[in-house]
Design goal:
Elements lengths: L1 H23 L12 H17 L3 H5 L7 E4 L3 E8 L7 E4 L5 E4 L13 E2 L7 H4 L6 E4 L4 E8 L6 E9 L4 E10 L3 E3 L3 H15 L2 E2 L6 E2 L9 E4 L8 E8 L2 E9 L6 E2 L11 E3 L2 H13 L2 E4 L4 E4 L12 E5 L7 E8 L8 E3 L4 E2 L1 E4 L11 E2 L2 E2 L25 H17 L3
């Protein structure tokens, strides 16, 4: 009779605690779920047992070192000897007398019994025991955040944290060694965790290393340094040569590491990446190769982008050239006229009066036209004059070609003469 009453009391106590869990899951009325309270007790107890049965403690313990202290009510204090997640009976522990005991991966000693293995006598929450260095924790009242650095006691009731920030107190503490584990839980909201990390970096003036939990100060970069800009909310990964103009970060040349691998060597952009570091030799070579494909190179002594092919400045009128207007475009065949001094970055003028930003001699760069269509034909080593719509006849001389301004002035004079009847 005594054992029966005890069993009923235990069942009622379990039901009370599980009813709280059910209420937190927004189930206001148990009678709406099952027809009777007796059936509700059975339903919730089975659900709780299934959750505990599916909880794999061996997965949590597999990365713990040998000798890590654990606890079981039937054995007292235990320590880890060996963990094998592939074996269902994979937890091997030893007691204070040196005797080894085998546990199932869910913490049971007998498969007919219940899970009895816990982190310690004082702290029995496996979810908190599974915290790892670098985890962002939030207080139960959501007022403060802290980064977990490890347990400070062998009973796992307190932990050491880094970069504690309180919203209400508006304070930052770099290190707290005795925080109660029951006062915190893992921050599941990624946006909130990232906002917290951004606040740390802004306050400390550096980049937070989540492995060491230390703030890494940004070095003082100099003009001409080759840097790597890491991806952030507004910028993608990029490799660039730093150009400092009036204290602002510009670049001489930049390779954007997007699917198009865009390379800009005009040097009119702004390097806005938040996190910068020195580029590795391999990353530097990527930038140099991209410049070489554009016929350019970096001169570290003069701190400027120079032409790999000096023949561009030696071109003469009617020389065959390849031109394009931007880095995304395709090379087009044309006949060179002259290079002009302009401020809009289109210095190369071709026969016909049109100007381009990029110009390369055709000879030696025929491969740039491989598989490119021009005038309906596939350009290879064919004569360029066959597919240039504005090609001038050979008997024309360069000095006979007038620019657009002179042509408009002559056209206006002719119109005035016609009106006066002089023509």
């Amino acid at each position: 009779m005594w054992s029966r009453t005890r069993k009923e009391n235990a069942t009622d106590a379990s039901f009370t605690s599980l009813q709280v869990i059910c209420t937190q899951k927004l189930v206001p009325d148990l009678s709406a779920v099952v027809p009777s309270v007796r059936m509700a007790k059975i339903f919730i107890l089975k659900e709780s047992n299934n959750m505990e049965r599916n909880f794999n403690i061996a997965e949590i313990l597999k990365d713990k070192p040998k000798g890590t202290k654990l606890y079981a009510d039937a054995f007292g204090e235990l320590s880890i000897e060996e963990i094998c997640t592939e074996d269902n009976h994979g937890i091997t522990l030893s007691d204070n007398c040196g005797t080894d005991w085998l546990f199932y991966n869910d913490g049971k000693y007998s498969w007919l019994g219940e899970s009895i293995l816990v982190p310690s006598k004082e702290m029995r929450d496996w979810h908190k025991f599974a915290w790892k260095k670098g985890y962002v924790l939030v207080s139960n009242d959501s007022d403060s955040h802290i980064i977990f650095n490890g347990f400070s006691k062998n009973d796992y009731t307190t932990f050491e944290g880094k970069h504690w920030i309180s919203v209400s107190k508006k304070r930052h503490v770099s290190c707290l060694k005795m925080q109660n584990v029951q006062d915190y839980h893992i921050e599941d909201n990624k946006d909130s965790a990232q906002t917290y990390i951004n606040a740390i970096e802004k306050f400390c003036g550096g980049k937070l290393n989540l492995e060491t939990l230390e703030i890494e100060k940004q070095p003082e970069f100099k003009d001409g340094d080759i840097l790597y800009g890491e991806k952030d909310e507004l910028h993608t990964d990029a490799i660039f040569i730093l150009k400092i103009v009036k204290g602002k970060r510009n670049y001489y040349a930049c390779l954007v590491l997007n699917p198009y691998m865009t390379c800009d060597y005009i040097g009119i952009g702004f390097a806005g990446n938040k996190t910068l570091r020195y580029a590795t030799e391999e990353e530097k070579q990527k930038l140099f190769d991209a410049l070489a494909k554009q016929g350019k190179a970096w001169d570290a002594e003069k701190k400027m982008i120079v032409d790999l092919n000096p023949k561009v400045d030696e071109l003469k009128p009617f020389d065959k050239v390849l031109v394009k207007d931007n880095t995304y475009g395709s090379w087009e065949p044309a006949l060179f006229w002259k290079k002009v001094d302009v401020k809009d970055l289109h210095p190369y003028k071709i026969i016909g009066g049109k100007r381009y930003r990029y110009c390369e001699p055709y000879e030696g760069n025929e491969h740039l036209l491989d598989n490119q269509k021009c005038g309906g034909l596939i350009m290879g080593n064919e004569d360029l004059t066959n597919c240039i719509p504005w090609y001038c006849k050979p008997h024309f001389k360069c000095e006979d070609i007038q620019d657009g301004k002179t042509q408009r002035r002559m056209r206006r004079k002719n119109q005035l003469r016609k009106r006066k009847g002089r023509l």
